[in-house]
Amino acid sequence: MNSNRKKAIYSGTFDPITNGHMDIIKRALQVFDEIIVAVADSNSKNPMFDTEMRVKLIEKATKGLNVSAKSFNTLLVDFAKSEEVDTIIRGLRAVSDFEYELQMGYANSSLDKNIDTMYFMPTLQNAFVSSSVVREILKFKGSVGHLVPKDILEDIQCI
């Protein structure tokens, strides 16, 4: 391996981070030396957790991994440029994700021809896990321990 550490950005809302996200991060770390988890401000989506909390949850969940969590409120390609990263990681759970993710990948590439998008599929056990499922269960005080990293469980159940 050359001395240039290869980094990638895994972007999303992460409201909150799930075992599915962790699955993608761990798979990406088999290809890249470092992953920057880019947390979109996305206040227009009315997130359950504010941006600062989502960053803290990711830091807690990824402790011990070569991962950093940073928020951004710009175009993803501009954030990538500021971080000197040219690869974006995205997860594909189902065919329904593919069309949207492909469109976003092409849009990012049209804004910066040096940006590549790499798609990872989670394991079958995490294929149905999404932040929206977790939020819905949390709203009704249901158990999400099987869907999120154990290190953040206490933090998110305090809602």
What's the average pLDDT? 93
Tell me the total number of β-strands.
5
CA-to-CA gap between the ends?
45 Å
- Write down the overall geometry: globular
Q: Quickly count the domains.
A: 1
Major sheet: 5 strands, parallel
**CATH fold label:** Rossmann fold
Report the helical percentage: 25-40%
Unreliable runs: none
Order of strands, widest sheet: 3-2-1-4-5
| Gross CATH architecture | 3-Layer(aba) Sandwich
Strand content: 15-25%
CATH superfamily, called what?
HUPs
Please explain how this structure is put together.
The chain has helices at about 20-30, 50-60, 75-80, 95-110, 130-140, 150-155, and strands at about 5-10, 35-40, 65-70, 85-90, 115-120. It is an alpha/beta fold and about 160 residues long. It has one domain: HUPs (Rossmann fold), CATH 3.40.50.620. It has a five-stranded parallel sheet, with helices on both faces. Helix 2 packs antiparallel against helix 6. The mean pLDDT is about 95.
